[in-house]
Amino acid sequence: MEDGLSDLDGVFCVTTRQGKLRQMTSDDSRAIKICRVMCIFFMSYVHVNPGLNDHVGELPPNLSYLENLLSEILGRASVPALSVLGGYLAVMAYGQRRSWAIYVGERWQTLVVPLIGWNAIIILL
After folding, report:
1. Which of 7 and 68 is assigned the larger pLDDT?
2. Are 14 and 21 within 8 A, CB to CB?
3. Which helix (H) or strand (E) holds 8?
4. pTM confidence score
5. d(CA 100, CA 62)
6. Are 19 and 1 in contact (CB under 8 A)?
7. CA separation (Å) from 9 to 6, 12, 16?
8. What is the SS3 string spanning 11-36?
9. What's the rounded Cα separation, in Å, for the pair 101 and 108?
10. Contact status, residue 3 vs residue 16, Cβ threshold 8 Å
11. For a designed S-S bond to 78, which of 26, 27, 42, 114 qualifies (C-beta 3.0 to 4.6 A apart)?
12. Is the pLDDT of residue 88 over 60?
C-alpha cells in the first residue's frame, strides 16, 4: 500500500505502508484543544516573564525547579508540539477538501486577509 490519502467508504483517513489510521474522534478533538491551550500558555510563560528570573538567587530550591520546569521544559516543548498538531490538523483538513487550491484558498481567507487588514490599520495609526 502506498503512502497517501484515501477515501474508504466515504470516511477520510490517512494511509501508510503499515495500514489505515483511524478517523479523529471527539475525544481526540477535545485532547487536541486542551493540548493547544496548554502549549499556548507555556509558550506565553516563556515570552512574558513573570519576574521569577529576577529573583533566581533568592528563590527556594523548590521554586527554582518549578521555574525551570515551566520555562525550559514545558515552554520549549510547546513549540514543536504545536507544529505537530498543526501539521496533523492540516492533513486532516486537506483530506476533507480533496484539493490543495480549496485548502490554500481557505487558509488565505482565514489567515492572510486578517493579517494584512490588521497590519494596514496599525500602519495607518
Report:
1. 68
2. yes
3. strand 4-8
4. 0.60
5. 50
6. yes
7. 10, 8, 17
8. EEEEEECCEECCCCCHHHHHHHHHHH
9. 10
10. yes
11. 42
12. yes
What distance, in Å, lies between the first and last C-alpha atoms of the chain? 56
Phi, psi of 90, rounded to the nearest 5 degrees: -65, -40
Nearest C-alpha neighbor of 74 from the set 33, 42, 49: 42
pLDDT digits (tens, 9 = 90+) for 19-50: 555 677 888 889 989 999 999 998 888 888 66
**What burial class does residue 22 get, using C-beta atoms within 10 Å of its C-beta: 0-12 exposed, 13-18 middle, 19+ buried?**
exposed
In the block, which residue shows the cell 533566581? Answer: 56
- Mean pLDDT for all residues in the chain: 76
CA distance 93 to 107: 10
Quick one: how many helices (H) and strands (E) in the chain? 5, 3
Give the pLDDT of residue 37. 92
Question: Would you tell me how many other CB atoms lie within 10 Å of the CB of residue 39?
Answer: 20
Q: How far is CA 53 from the centre of its chain?
A: 27
For residue 122 the three cell numbers come to: 496599525
Q: Which residue has the cell 530550591?
A: 61
Angle at 111 between CA 107 and CA 117, to 5 degrees: 135
